[in-house]
Amino acid sequence: MTTIAPGGVPVAGDLAPDFTLRSTADTPVTLSSLRGQKHVLLAFFPFAFSRVCTEEFCEMRDHWDAFARHDLEVFPISVDSPHALREFKAKHGMQVTLLSDFHREVSAAYGTLFGDAGFSNRGYVLIDKEGVIRWRFVEETPGTRREHTELLAEIAKLA
Known about the structure:
There is one protein chain. By secondary structure, the protein is α/β, with parallel strands linked by helices. The protein has 5 helices and 7 strands; from the N terminus they run E-E-E-H-H-E-H-E-H-E-E-H. Strands 2-1-5-4-3-6-7 form a 7-stranded mixed beta sheet, covered by helices on one side. A hairpin with a 5-residue loop joins strand 6 (123-127) and strand 7 (133-138). It is globular, with a radius of gyration of 14 Å.
């Protein structure tokens, strides 16, 4: 289930479009179920096992304590199948729960779907506990990414 913003791509200050996606734990995750409980960082990425994506999430894994200090859920999202994402998570010992946007609806709703290529560009959406987008950044190309220090600086603004 995806609720797409009526005006198109959501921006800071908008209520985050709700969705339910299958997780690497083989359970559905519904964004709105976290309202009032946790801040959320959605980290859209092109494909599991690609070089930049692997570097990005291994760096996050290596600095996980810095992310865990915040009242935050981090959900990397790609168009890969749940099975591929489970393998990616296991191979690299990641702590996060990855979400599969196999039907590309959530990537489209958040404005990260990369043209007609059928995969998501790399993008970040930081959502506060009330479900409001506080920061959004989409990379110019899928081969670039934010460093964990920049993500943590944006997360710290929620405190």
